[in-house]
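Structure ticket #2291
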Amino acid sequence: MSADAGKAGAGKAGAGKAPGAAGAPERRSRRFPPITRDTARPEGGGRAAPGDAPAPARQWPLLCVLAGAATGLLVTLGDFRAGILIIGASMLAGAVLRWAVPSVGMLAVRSRFTDVVTYGVLGTAISLLAMMAQPKPWLEIPFLESVIRFSIR
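Resolution: structure written out below.
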């Protein structure tokens, strides 16, 4: 038997199994590895459209939120309160998209719950601050003035 025939036979017999010290298949541990070599894609972080669709179509949820924020920035040049409300509304729309659409592409950053809470809190805070902005606020919260006076003392 030649050396090449011996190598070919050994390769076929051990294919797919990593032999241990005694020649038996090695048992894999169910524990997490001590060193992380890769990160998992966030839940719902897959493409929002099929892979053969153009790149903008695959990321339509993120593009909708970015277009809303850009529109809000442009409107801010004319009427700051309306522009900031549009920005807050686009963040709230991002929260709704993240909650309702199963695959949102790059709009998914963390887990679904964390993304929805983050987008929702930021959108609500931006909208409330826009309505409370001076001069002539649309929304007045009575206890805020006393809180500010107490904190400035």
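Closing remark: The CA atoms of residues 143 and 149 lie 10 Å apart.
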